[in-house]
Amino acid sequence: MYKPLLAALLCSAFVCFASAQLRGPPGAVCTRQGSRLVTFLIENRRRREPSSGIWDYLRMWDAFGIKKDRNPRSFVTGYAIEYFTIYECCVGWNRIDDTCQADCYHPCEHGLCVDTNFCECDEGWEGEQCEHDVDECWYEIDECDHENGDCTNTEGSYNCTCDEGLHLINGTTCHEIPDTDECARGISGCEQNCHNTHGSYFCSCDAGYTLAADRHACTDIDECATNDGGCEHSCTNVPGGRCSGIIGPPGKSVPNPWPNHRLAGETACRDNDTYPYGEEAGEVPRIWNFSTCNEEALPQEGFRFFGRRHHQIHICDNGIVSFDRINRPRNLNLNAVGFYTHAVLAPFLARSNAELLDNLPEADRTKIYYSLYERGDGKVATDEVLQRARDDGRSTPRYFSQTYEPVWALVVTWTRVPPDCSIYGGVCPRDHDQLPVNDFQLAISTDGTLSYATFVYPAKKLEWVSTGNWKFALQPQESTTVPESAVVGCSRWMRQQTVEDPTQLLGYGALPPVSSCPCSAEQAFHDPTYTVDRSQFNQDRFCGSSRRRVHTRESAGSEKLILSRTCCYSAAYWWRQWAGRRWRDRISGGSLRTGHAGGHLIINDTSADEVAYQSCCVGASGLRGGWYCQRFQTLRPLSAPSAPGCKDYPVDPGWTRLRGDPHFTTIDGISYTFNGLGEYVIVDVDNGLYQVQGRTAFASGSSHATIISAVVINERGKLPIQTNVVGNSSLDLCINGSMADTSVFESNEEMEVGDNAVILKPSNDSLLVVFFSGVTVKVSAKKGMLAVEFSAPPEFRGKVRGLLGRWDGDSTNDFEAFNGTVFSADSTERELYAFGNSWQVTVEDGPKKSLFFYKDGEDVNTFISVDYQPKYTDELVFSDPELETKAREICGNDTECLFDVSQTGDIEVAVITVEGKEEFASQTAARGRFPPTVSGPDEVYATVNDTVTIRINASDPNNGTLVFALGEGAPDTADLAVEGDLATLTWQVTSDAPFNLRVDVFGSDNTTAQYWPAVYMCSCLHGGNCDASTDPDPASAGGETKFVQRSCTCAPGYTGDRCEEDIDACLLNFDPCFPGVGCEDLPAPAGDGTDGFRCGDCPGGYTGDGFNCQDLDECGTPEGDVCTHTCENYPGTFICSCDQGFELTEDKVSCQDIDECALQLTNCSQQCENTAGSSNCACLDGFTLAANGMDCEPDNPCSAGNNPGCEFGWCITNSLGTAQCVCRSGYVLASDNRTCEGRWK
Length: 1241
Hints:
Elements lengths: L1 E5 L8 E2 L12 E18 L2 E2 L3 H5 L6 E2 L8 E15 L4 E3 L2 E3 L9 E5 L2 E4 L3 E2 L5 E2 L2 H4 L9 E6 L2 E6 L4 E3 L3 E3 L6 H4 L7 E5 L2 E5 L4 E3 L6 E3 L13 E5 L2 E5 L15 E4 L3 E4 L22 E4 L5 E3 L2 E3 L1 E4 L5 E2 L15 H4 L2 E2 L21 E8 L7 H13 L13 E10 L20 E9 L4 E6 L13 E4 L11 H12 L24 H6 L3 E2 L9 E6 L3 E4 L6 E11 L1 E8 L2 E8 L11 E3 L2 H14 L7 H9 L18 E5 L4 E3 L5 E3 L5 E7 L4 E9 L7 E10 L5 E6 L3 E2 L2 E2 L2 E2 L11 E3 L3 E7 L2 E6 L4 E7 L2 E8 L7 E2 L13 E2 L5 E2 L5 H9 L43 H11 L3 H10 L2 H21 L5 E3 L3 E5 L3 E9 L7 E4 L7 E6 L2 E7 L10 E4 ...
Parallel strand pairs: 62-69, 69-71
Antiparallel strand pairs: 1-3, 2-22, 3-6, 4-5, 7-8, 9-10, 11-12, 13-14, 15-16, 17-18, 19-20, 21-22, 23-24, 25-28, 26-27, 28-29, 29-30, 31-32, 32-33, 33-34, 34-35, 36-37, 37-39, 38-39, 39-42, 40-41, 43-57, 44-45, 46-47, 46-58, 47-48, 48-49, 49-50, 49-51, 51-52, 53-54, 54-55, 55-56, 56-57, 59-60, ...
Keywords: Disulfide bond, EGF-like domain, Membrane, Repeat, Signal, Transmembrane, Transmembrane helix
Protein name: MUC4 protein
GO molecular function, one term: calcium ion binding
């Protein structure tokens, strides 16, 4: 392995810092990192071997590595990625030349568009579009010398002038002595910047340069010369600045010099495996209390952790993250029971202590960063973080999810985390600024259904414990059951919403107001502005939709939005009532629900919003204190938030009908007949905002009576809608003069016309037009005649005129002619004929201009006869007595009915007239049939074992008798006492099981209302109290049952939803006692902290209270005195050691001498003598011990001439004077008396 060092560039990936080329307000200019391949030379050297890390640390930190000799230098070509910054306009901003601008409808002439329709003007300009020059001279904001000169305004600026004889200096000052502008003339000699002064000048340098001694030249500042420029890895000086780069780790030989890093900010280098954090992510370190874990609420999806969904996260400084409430774990032991019972992620399991670095300079302290990232949150790192989280999720080992798209991610980064020193009695064996430190990261993400976690360990930032990167799926691959699945659907819908507060949308006020729902399903069914599906009546809750709607946009160019409302009811049923001549269908039940169940605003898609309601307010109703339903109500305001939810439903709407041989009933209730021939304004609303015109023709069999044959309906500026009678009982439909395709009505669908009305076909012989304002027109065909029903909401009262009269509640002025003349309410029909003709339409432009579509050759005059003479109902004459008899049998004394038969000679007309009147009367009665009004508290607070008393008041609109009854599912311990219009509900609360506390109130005419409060149940045990701060609003409480189990604040020592469990402080604190020490939970009222448990005795070799145990230095106690020679202390124990030359005996405490001679551990050449703890060498007679204390030298060695060639020994001259070979220790002389052989031979 080789260590790459940069020889030429000294950086493998570098960025030269420069200012952005784009300008714009904060948040307008975004940056991203670009890259390209570069080459350079690398010097190779052999790397150093690493130490064993944590084990050296634990053994008094005596070494971190062994230095090896380096190989000779050599160079190779390396390749790396060069990173650079790309500047571009952020999403939502437009690039115009060199600026990023927002959308301004009127362009900023001399400035920058910094927000929607808001200009920030350049200096010297003002106005909404920066179109006006600022007259600096007039405002006296110029810098001219007014004592010796004057100011002249120019576009966007001004010029200064001087009095005669004076000279302008620097454009502002007047002086007698003229100035030579050395800068302007280019004679200053300044290398970079020149500044003129009166009579002189001075030079300055750009950033990154300093002025030389000659005060003209500029010298580059070598930023890298001091502290390596502050760069984390390497620094290369460049003219005017520095390039911060990245070098490889010591001894690491790679093709590119440590290419897997990036530059963060100007100096920091980050491993590419890490998610963005700190400065590059716009983060600052979190403020931390190192004794606790920080609690944060998670986004709306919460976080799925296998079989549970969690909505809070607890982040601890020591690398532990929990989704359950925990106390900061002291001992990171996976065998602790807490790790099995809590939803915990542990990206770091070594024991650490961040507080150790608190006294160091800020840059050297432990820092913890964390941020949540959601699409569109405006954070600079969001897109990159979510992309990486997506890739990590899709590539998680042993889990397949190739379509995973996270909706949010959380990144937690711990930096410079040191090990814990408590094992050494709290005193670290090394100075705190020399402690090894680690960086590591946790990234979690979810799409609501799937959740993933990634542990990131940057290799160059791990100094005392290291590991690889890991990815985890937090649900089994085969799992199909999603916990709290309603949260997923609700959250997905919420993220799709673009309108935060619909009540601020343009046109919202044109919708039916809150609390204006029909009071019953029967009213809604007969109200033409609502649509109710009768097939849903048997459901516990069904909804009608208002046909009144508003088309709007959130802003110019944004998506079109269609707003409407729903009103929802309890189950209803049909029944039949005898109505004089025939049976009539009636609807009972169907009480208006209130709160979240009573309906809400709809934006665009009714079905999607209803599905969202079911998820947010039913499925997720009890989660996060009702937050999901409350959030739904913000996005879709309720229609009936509280009882009575229909208090603003109109009691007397403008609703009337004209029929047959035109018989009119004004909206204020006066009936008359107008037998005009031609085309007329039937009704005019708000001076032509809406208009209904009718065309009359001769009634069949009569030349003196007419019928309505065609109707045109129009809203000013919109498409006119015309229908003509075809045959006996059919209608055609023309929109803007063209025949419409009516096939849509075959599937009972509605036809939307433009953005202002819908058309539907209630029956085969009728069409209903509903304008989004609430104005409705229904046209029906019978016997070749058209009948017209008209209704308008109360806001148009006082604004309606025409043949249907002035609608203002005053019947005396109903017959107001077009010119304002008022005919008496007692006028004869002959007199009223002039009133009717005043509303005849015209060809000319004006308020009565015809809206009809004409065939070729037709116009208004086509349908007028100057010879026509009408007949009047008050001048009724039958020419056929037999016909009169039959007519009176059917019509009775109904003059209009008799008149129609007398003019047409057709008895069937009588049947149609009577049936039409009865049907309209039935509908009118149904719409005006109000249920009882019921009042009582919106919320009821109950506590187990208490008694609740509720008083309910009710009144019947017809002063009829009321009947009170407990609804289905009420508890057996509830009792209802009734006295007239007052009912008293007494409830003995014996259980906290959910139920419906509903009282049904039955009024006259078989109408029904309900009293259904939200029940807030408190069932806290062991002295716990209910927390009112978490109670949801009654309008959003309790889902389908309106029953809320209140949160408990438990007394010390207890936990659980109802405070039913004694806190196990040992479990909650993850076995907090010293490793190996038993933990005993203390009974309540002991708390969940250190007062809630008791630790056993410290293990042998340690001292302390069992919670904190420090190593016992046995060598300083009598226990260590057993060692014969030396005692060495180690964490939790000690060992005896011996002096050199001695060894431990079997008892491991005593020392005995090592016989070096017997063990042949010496290098003595002849003899060895053992001594205590050592040995000495000795020589044979005739030899002398050499100076090295090991070799023996002969006293009388052989000469060269008489040496027989002794091997492995010496040649000496013996006492006989002859040569003799003597062998070294361990050898013997062979038979040839010359060679020394080893004894083993």
